[in-house]
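Before the break, one more example. Copy the sequence into your notebook; we will annotate it together after we see the structure.
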Amino acid sequence: MSQEVPEEFRLLCMLHNIGAIKLERSLSVQEICEWTAMETSSIELHLQKLVELGYVQPIEAEATGRYHLTPDGIRKVLSLYS
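Here is what the structure looks like once it is written out:
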């Protein structure tokens, strides 16, 4: 029986797949919305959880929050595929 992946981990995988894996590739919530077709409020909620878990790193750039995966976040994504 397959186990359902929590929504925040689906977002984590999406961020990995679109390349938000280092500081230089960080994305704003708006950019994440465009890539994922998810609602802003949903993305913000999931990002908060992923930051608390240490899987996503927030940064302040150009007066807007941007996000990218941490090394732990990358490892988590890879472990979901194995």
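The chain has a mean pLDDT of 90. The helical segments are 7-17, 29-36, 40-52, 71-81. Try to locate both features in your own notes.
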